[in-house]
Design goal:
Length: 761
């Protein structure tokens, strides 16, 4: 027989005892297969997975409410939590039945929404984030949730501490109170949820209506407000989804019908499927998801300009040492569109506050917040009286009065009267007289009010108090501006330069549009022969000023106002002015044409002193018309209406007799519109002369040529408003050149040299 080869003995130390990755993966697959669903869905396995969410255990102090809410809304957490609670309920019931006992009626658990049960953990750990205020109903929910969560945690702790012990050996009947606690919690949650959802629904309606109204003020073809429109649409989609969750499809359709009756397109942003499908009863439900912004910031929109920055204030004081903030202190109320948008949200806030007071019981949470704003505003004005003001306007005291049911109408009137009295102590004599006059009429209405009118009147009075305090704050701000105006006049230019230097240092590529803007203007002026290239290359100051002036005017004389994202960085502080000057320039041309065609039509049929007087009246009316306050498409109509409102009966007869000489007829609006109608061709050909006149007047020596009244009646008829507008533009151009002259000089020189090299080639 052949000999069997002998292998050397195996050295155990030479073998690796660590299994390979493939072996580990294979063994895990085999274990999962052998264990099956029974193991995966067992209570120990469910608790092990839920432990990763940290929802059931005690929350650490640093745990953020939004983060924990997001965890509770994960699908796998909801699924496992439902299986856990369902299993616990089943095991408790089975243990009770096996002992021969019967379940009481309050221990019979009907089908429930697991998200409501998960919300108990949020209520226990972060009640202030779940509830807008802690009233009687909220306290009931909080206590019921605490009992339920405590018992469930004990059950989970017992299961985890005895993993090796079969579940059947646990004394499940000892946890029988869990069934009753669950039913009590669900009942308390429902008692709180019904009125809370009604409150939220009404607030959402006001918020949505404000968004629709605000958006209606934005012209659809104006690109300047596109970011705001996009934010409005996103907010509407979010609020409509929330309303669908709370009020259901029928409630949303009812609101849409009310919108259509007011002339709005009801559906323009449908809620996403994922958002709409989530339940309002979920673990992340809160009584504060759809509030309107506070009264002092009645928009809450990032796209709506806010208060003026220090840089903006310094710029305004450089242009006008007597500059004052308006009573709103917003810094953009010269823009009628933004003013209307802001007003839409302000009206919605106060209307929503009235609805809060009409609830049963009334909700005073936001009322007390406004009272706090009034008090804090007074403290800002007089910090030394901080302790006194906090005692006299004590929101905690009024909260106690509300909770005890001691708040009546006379107390509400006393609150308003007390706050106004303190405000008048702090006011200047002129402001005090204004406040007293306004309060006198308001007080009479408050004293004679009926219960139905009281919520509206109280909010009107509260708005009045807040408004008077805000006026005082603006007065104080204006007083500070007067104190620093002389400093700004001396050092403001250096201040603006320093701000620009900071921007460029933070972002070396900050100046992107400005060089392109200068390059285009150099090419244009040289190409048209209005600028001498050799003088530009030699660095002649007058030639540089001419380029800069023409460049700024190009932003004003374009067919459309310059957009924010296209405006040169060096003129960003003047973007609103550029829009105003754009409107002024184009209306100068339109007004000149209206006067020319009206004169031609009237004089052609009738030469009468009354016609001359009528034309003088028209000239005066057009010279005083503020074009920037009206949308471009509405200017002709608005100017016509303004003039018509000033017409006397005799002047109307003159118009009628001139426009219908052969067939005398009564005056009509159509006659006036026909008189002032400007043919498109006439308007187009009129821009050239007006551009030349503006260019002369806004130049550095423009003030010297103001007295040179143009010979042409076309420009002469509106020369008063042309000079007035040119002075404003000249001041802005001059300041802009002083602040950025060094950068402009470098850009103009570089572009001039490029243009010269290009000609050589």
């Amino acid at each position: 027989l052949p000999s069997i080869p002998q292998h050397p003995p195996v050295q155990l130390g030479s073998l690796s005892l660590r299994p390979s990755c493939a072996a580990v993966s294979a063994s895990a697959c085999i274990a999962r297969f052998l264990r099956g669903p029974a193991f995966r869905f067992s209570l120990p396995s469910l608790l092990a997975r839920l432990a990763r969410s940290s929802l059931i255990a005690e929350w650490p102090a640093e745990a953020r409410f939004p983060d924990m809410t997001a965890r509770s809304q994960k699908k796998w957490v909801i699924r496992d939590f439902k299986r856990l609670v369902t299993s616990v309920i089943f095991l408790i019931k089975r243990a009770v039945v096996r002992r021969g006992l019967r379940l009481d009626k309050d221990e019979t658990v009907e089908q429930f929404n697991v998200r409501v049960l998960m919300a108990a953990f949020l209520v226990v750990n972060r009640p202030g984030s779940c509830f807008e205020s802690i009233g009687h109903l909220e306290k009931q929910v909080q206590h019921a949730a605490a009992d339920l969560v405590t018992t469930l945690r004990h059950i989970c702790s017992s299961i985890e501490s005895s993993r090796a012990q079969p579940l059947t050996q646990h004394d499940w009947s000892s946890w029988r109170p869990f069934l009753k606690q669950l039913n009590v919690y669900l009942a308390r949650f429902k008692d709180w949820k019904v009125p809370d959802e009604h409150k939220l629904t009404e607030r959402i309606k006001h918020a949505l209506l404000a968004l629709y109204r605000a958006e209606s003020h934005l012209s659809p073809d104006v690109q300047e407000y596109m970011p705001m429109k996009e934010e409005f649409r996103a907010q509407k989609a979010k609020l409509r989804a929330k309303m669908l969750q709370i009020a259901g499809a029928q409630g949303l359709e009812s609101f849409d019908e009310a919108l259509r009756q007011q002339g709005f397109t009801a559906v323009d942003a449908e809620p996403s499927e994922e958002t709409a499908s989530s339940s309002s009863q979920g673990a992340g439900s809160s009584s504060r998801p759809a509030e309107l912004p506070s009264s002092t910031n009645a928009s809450g929109l990032s796209s709506l300009p806010g208060r003026m920055t220090n840089e903006q204030l310094a710029h305004e004081l450089l242009l006008d040492p007597a500059f004052k903030l308006d009573e709103q202190g917003a810094g953009y109320l010269d823009n009628p569109v933004l003013s209307k948008v802001r007003e839409s949200f302000k009206v919605a806030f106060w209307d929503s506050l009235v609805d809060d007071l009409r609830l049963t019981p009334p909700c005073y949470v936001r009322v007390l917040k406004v009272v706090g704003e009034v008090r804090d505003g007074m403290i800002d004005l007089s910090p030394s009286r901080s302790k006194e003001l906090k005692e006299k306007i004590d929101t905690a005291y009024w909260q106690e009065q509300i909770e005890s049911g001691a708040l009546d109408w006379s107390s509400c009137v006393s609150l308003i009267e007390g706050m106004l009295g303190i405000a008048m102590e702090m006011q200047e004599p002129s402001r005090k007289q204004e406040t007293q006059a306004g309060w006198k009429a308001l007080e009479q209405e408050l004293r004679a009010s009926t219960p139905e009118d009281q919520p509206t009147l109280f909010c009107t009075a509260l708005e009045y108090v807040l408004g008077r305090v805000n006026v005082m704050r603006v007065d104080a701000a204006n007083a500070r501006l007067r104190n620093i105006a002389h400093v700004i006049q001396n050092h403001g230019i250096e201040y603006e330069r320093a701000h620009m230097d900071k921007k460029i240092k933070a972002n070396p590529a900050y100046l992107q549009r400005t060089p392109e803007w200068i390059r285009a203007q150099v090419e244009k002026e040289v190409g048209r022969g209005r600028a001498d290239l050799s003088k530009l290359v030699q660095g002649e100051g007058a030639a540089y000023e001419q380029i800069h002036t023409a460049a700024v005017l190009s932003l004003i004389m374009g067919s459309e106002p310059v957009k924010t994202d296209a405006c040169p960085e060096t003129l960003q502080l003047d973007i609103s002015r550029l829009h105003k000057y754009h409107a002024d320039f184009h209306f100068d041309v339109l007004a000149a044409c209206m006067l020319a065609v009206a004169s031609q039509r009237l004089m052609a049929t009738k030469k009468d002193p009354k016609v001359t007087e009528l034309l003088e009246h028209l000239k005066t009316s057009l010279n005083s018309f503020e074009a920037s306050l009206v949308d471009k498409e509405e200017r002709v109509k608005a100017a016509t209406s303004s003039f018509e409102a000033e017409l006397s009966a005799a002047e109307k007869e003159v118009i009628a007799s001139c426009l219908s000489p052969s067939q005398p007829s009564a005056y009509s609006r159509e006659m006036l519109e026909r008189l002032l109608e400007v043919p498109a061709m006439v308007l187009e050909k009129s821009y050239g002369p007006m551009e030349e006149r503006w260019l002369r007047l806004v130049s550095a020596d423009g003030s010297k040529v103001e007295s040179d009244v143009p010979q042409s009646p076309f420009v002469r008829n509106v020369y008063e408003r042309v000079v007035r507008n040119a002075r404003r533009v000249r001041k802005v151009i001059s300041l802009n050149r002083k602040v950025h002259y060094d950068r402009y000089n470098q850009m103009i020189l570089a572009e001039s040299q490029k243009a010269k090299e290009g000609r050589k080639v």
